[in-house]
């Protein structure tokens, strides 16, 4: 399958190009690697993209936040077999004092923590950077760089904390400082990052958003509530749209139907719990919204051709092999 490339302006060009006369611009870096988690990193970039939309009318369209992805060698970095992002290289030309730096998590973090070029780059930039946040396994990279100054900032690596929400809150804190609490609160509402997302009621202020933004907000809501017995009808109510319009906009914006998206979110969460915890299969099934272990077993056999127990054993064996390599 070919890759879908998420391109950013001038990626691969000289990192400092076009910066003259833009002292107000905030430099935001997102460190990624093959096998990183796009879900959590994507929320961070969306926060700043929405903030730029708010700022545009007062700046003749000039962005307030310059968000760039960085990887060891630059170029295309794969999130999955279908999606990649364009990045800048972690080299002397890109080393700078960022206003905020986010280190992505994901399955490839352990390998990335052994990447000497990336770790040396982090050792250079982290002490100069205002805000540093790790997302999940991204903590491994800062540990490898021995950047003790910011060890306390990486609170989203603590078990039980929602990586997407924690990293997004750090981004929102910067937006609040620059654009005010109303702007930050509005962005949080649009991304379904507030406490209101725990209900099935329409998200506040959606009347002022586009259909595409409502579809994205409902997708975030499904991610955050996948363990509950929610349905596509609930997502329709949250988005405050007609069912027909919602289904059309969701497929156009997300690339799959709401039911397919919810099933994949639940499946991903299930695989994480199987590989990373000793919870019983039935408990995991209930926590991920499947209802019971029998239904979960049927889903796994149909989608992965293995039982949940077989998947757990294989995932742990693969993790042990990677740790020894």
Automatic annotation (TrEMBL):
<keyword id="KW-0238">DNA-binding</keyword>
<dbReference type="InterPro" id="IPR050204">
    <property type="entry name" value="AraC_XylS_family_regulators"/>
</dbReference>
<protein>
    <submittedName>
        <fullName>AraC family transcriptional regulator</fullName>
    </submittedName>
</protein>
<dbReference type="InterPro" id="IPR009057">
    <property type="entry name" value="Homeodomain-like_sf"/>
</dbReference>
<dbReference type="InterPro" id="IPR018060">
    <property type="entry name" value="HTH_AraC"/>
</dbReference>
<dbReference type="GO" id="GO:0043565">
    <property type="term" value="F:sequence-specific DNA binding"/>
</dbReference>
<feature type="region of interest" description="Disordered">
    <location>
        <begin position="1"/>
        <end position="20"/>
    </location>
</feature>
<dbReference type="Pfam" id="PF12833">
    <property type="entry name" value="HTH_18"/>
</dbReference>
<keyword id="KW-0804">Transcription</keyword>
<dbReference type="InterPro" id="IPR029062">
    <property type="entry name" value="Class_I_gatase-like"/>
</dbReference>
<keyword id="KW-0805">Transcription regulation</keyword>
<feature type="domain" description="HTH araC/xylS-type">
    <location>
        <begin position="216"/>
        <end position="314"/>
    </location>
</feature>
<dbReference type="GO" id="GO:0003700">
    <property type="term" value="F:DNA-binding transcription factor activity"/>
</dbReference>
